[in-house]
Batch of 4 targets.
Target 1
Amino acid sequence: MQNYVALLGIFLLWASVIWLPITVFRAKELQGQSKAWALSSIFAFFMVFFGYTRAIAGGSVMEAFAWSVSWLMPIGIALFLRKSAPNVPLPEWDKWLGALVLVSFLPMMGILPGLLRQFAAAIW
């Protein structure tokens, strides 16, 4: 079970990393409440990143589980922004980013755990 949760966390982390640049672009282009949603997705990414690396550095199993599932937050907010904003820039890119996540995850699956441990050791 713990291995599946770790795999889920790494997959969702990779999806968040792929979606981050388009969310930053959308935050620059949008105005009003849509911009606030884009910024909240960006801030959620960094919040979860720091919590996730803290759990890797020395947290409990339950803490790691909670932060693994928390990777859904930045992705969910970014996808909500795409659906809710009428003038979101580059709306067709989301399906291509999803395909990119699926195609590129297997090669990155061997690299990401080591990188995360290095980030966790450097930060915490």
Target 2
Amino acid sequence: MRHITHIGKLASLPLLGRLVEALRGCRGLWALCLLFASCIDEDLSNCPGPCGDLTIRYVIQQTDSIDPAFDVGIRSLHAGFWASDGTLYEEYILGEDELPADMLFEITLPADDYSHIVTANCERNDGQHRLFDDDIQAVSFEQPYAGTDTIEAMSRAAYLGTLDIDLNNTERTLYEVPLRPMVAKLELTVNYAQTLSNIRCYIGNTKAGWMCWAGTAIDNERLVTDATQLASDVADSTKLYAFYAFPTVVDPPVPVTMLDAKPRATEEAGEWKLFFLSDYMDGDEQKTVQHTFTIEKNPLRVGEVFRGEFSINTTGGEYHNVETGIEVDPDWNPGHGTDVEL
């Protein structure tokens, strides 16, 4: 049973006409419960049992692993409650203008065990959210594909929180859900020769998303992230690409209550790639040059910011103050070398 609504607007939810008489005889929490459930039978046999009130506060988990330049604002929330039978019972989506300043939400649910997932800042570029799956194990956060293996970079930092709630066997009514980041931030300064134009920026070898309830990353070795649209001109022949992307390495999943504990072992830092594609004129012919930087010792981790300054021209390139591998293809075509989806 799924209900999609907005907290703060429950009083305006439409009710089936046959509920009117039933509601007149209900008081207190029972009346509130009917707003969350479908009682479509005349004898009310499908109505829920006793309800429980709870208050939830969503808080971005502040740890030493989150860079000061990382965006810690919450601009949208998408939350779901899965009942003990494994079904998605309640789902709500809130935009920035609907979020209370204290991030406190009062919720009434029928007494049951619930598994709760909440994501923040996870709307797509069109402003819409993909609805949660009925199976909690299948709920994921992924960017929609713009090509066969290409996704768009994110302009906001995405966060995830999970919680177990037992309204049957506890008198606890206040819960705090720490939100932990699912992405890394990149700030790439690119100095380019005046002979180059139409600079495009991509990164490769990142994770492809997250399985939310398990807290595990999704792999796709062919994935490429397109950050071209998130560039700004900071000087003549200098661009800044500032964006968020999935990490290249992740820590083993741990309970959120342990996020402030001692540092954890991480998997070996894998290399990742940075691609710049640019157009230039070779005589009367327009060509494309591709610069491929291989980053070996600076993995992208959630909550951290990767900063790098690069220079490119038609014959070479440089990653300033850092030794790294670079390949230059002055006559790049799709399928020639790394096939970046355009």
Target 3
Amino acid sequence: MSMGRLWRDNTMITTVKQYGEIRTGTNYLRALIQRNYPDIHVLSYILGGKHAPPIPFGVLWAEAQQAGGDAAFNFVSTATYSQRGGASHPKDPTQQEELTRRAPQIAKAYTTGALGFLVTIKDPYAWVVSAARFNGWIRGDEPLRDWSIELMREACLGYNRNYRAWLSFLREHPQRARLVRYEELLADPERVMTEIAAQFDWQRSGGFEAITAVVEPTQWDHLPVIETPDTFRPEFYANNEYLQRIPAEQMQQIGELMDWDLLSELGYARR
């Protein structure tokens, strides 16, 4: 689903801020952008944690200008740490150096309309399994356990809250924001990336380069993408293998907990 542009201008998106729940393909998307569009700056933790709702950029920019001093750094630093991701630490000297170096370019992108936004989403049933694995509720191929139902309940409610906020944000910025469905990205990454590039006015100099390896989580914005020696299995999602990890009781719980009015608008349905 694309929150297509209401109008088109001549501003190329030079910087993209990522959003999306954990395990929805944010790292994979970042890796694809960096490999195929290396001139584009991807922000994961800078300007706020990627797994958290957007912050009020307009308010923070106005405050940064009024505060005196380096408005660009004040804006970028405040935005980064006021809604910080788990890996962001205000007293980390390496992060401070990175913010100092990148603040002028990021502030310019924001003030000129060259800052874009990408929100990733995964089918809620598949996402529950991915989140359970990530959080250690299950290991390997084992199914969800009864003891994890309350944890799953809280996670599902948080999923609803976050995507309500992100969808509202997409509607506010239709010309420079896009929703990326994980299933579509896996099925045809070249097509999805070509559509993003067309919306954001990106140019790819060569042929499309796919990524077949498992991509490690992003540690912070200044660190490179790390691909593991393992080959990723898209069949786990394409063939709905994840459903084998969800017992009947948890299937019912997910069906009752998720906001299907919201999710139907994003292309998902209750099973």
Target 4
Amino acid sequence: MKTVLLCLAVVFTLTACGNKKTDKGEETLDSAAVEEKVLLEQQEETPMPMFLYYMNPDYMQVVYWTDFEEPKKTDDNAEYFDQMHLNWAQQDVILRHAEGYTKMLLSDGKMVDIKYVGELLKNPDGEDMYPGELHSRPSIPSPGLQFAFVNPKDAPKRDYNYGELFVILHKDYLDSRKQLKVTYYDVEKPLPQTVVKQMEKKYNMKATRSVLTSKIGDRYTYGSIQFAGEYKNAPKDKNRDYKKALALEVLMDGDKVYPLEVLGYYDEGECTWNADDGGEYFPTGISAAFEGPDGLELCYEHGAPESRTVGIAYVKDDQLVRKEYAVYHSMIDEETPLWKKDVAKLQKLYVADDPHENKYHKLSKYRWIDIDNDNNDELWMRDKDDQHGALFTVNKGEYQLIGVETDKLHASFLQPQNGKGYVRIVGSAGGPSVYTQLFALKKSKVVERFNMLEVEGNIDEASLNGKTISRSEAADYLDRTPDDWDVYIYWRNIEE
């Protein structure tokens, strides 16, 4: 059932297509399905542009949108089998032609060299991964085709952590296409009133909003129109028996206007096209444009709060037509996984800090916390009794111990400040003595280590980065540290 549900919302959606029987009882595909097969054969000859999900140079993938094993027809999937198989076949074409995808198109229109480096199907624990999802953290892999830059210096300069979808191109495609420059409008502009009025007349509806999004080459412009009310002339669909809202994607070529209908839901005066869109249609972005043997070809991405849809658009019979590659589910607020293979490694690092004592304590629960606010979590672990624990940094899958908790020394945190975060481990050193460790982190690395012993509330001795400092220097250091950070503590058991 999971596979069926995924295939209903992915590449080459054929909800209006189905098998028909001839007089002899033979099954034959209807015209729309035949067209899809023709397109698939064309792609075998000239592989079309694809979309690569990029988070950093170590995480750049064409993420699979459907199962990577060829589906088999069963009684349970018979109704959707043709759709499923076409989805898989399109994905399989990309796999078989992967080595030919040698160019990546950056946001400024520049092309850089890339190379195919392999297929990823299993997570670090050796388990199959679910396709069709774009994860929010580099630590969470996806199934798909992995790529790398030929020259690492070509990596896009980015100051945020979430992933982007970039167009990648096959060498055979580039041999027969001319790239067109895509210019985006920085300030929201409406479509020309002549175009809006023309579409209002065509659909007999009132436009409430229009957005001009981009200019393509020296000839085309692109945008969208949103209408009010119910679209009463919407095509009938027995599988989707609800009132429809209407928006248009619009390609303009001089005086020619090519619309594409995008149906949404209409209910009690409210229109919606995507979850949490607030009644506002989100315009589609043109990622790349090419002039090919049969005319204009547009690579598009339609973003929404919980999904990202990618594909190719072109003009046919005076209409703008889109062929979806995939409707990806955008995963948000994901927790960084703690892979089973890493648990033993972390326990070993903890024990190595004090082999005689720590070997008796098992780290059995954990939580992630971004101590230095750099979008890369640190790991805090404890035993089941909350008496012993350890904190770790992690960089590209490599863990380093920050410090340990004992039955007398426990951790707390200071507010992140100026790119630094702070872990404080404090407790009794016996009698009237209190021992303090303070670790400053920056970009997920420990950059300062402060140690101090107090006796009856007075500083007795202190050190910074292994060097002894005076009592006044220690006091000054503490005065410069930020306020306490009251972190909400919740734990996840490793066995879960």
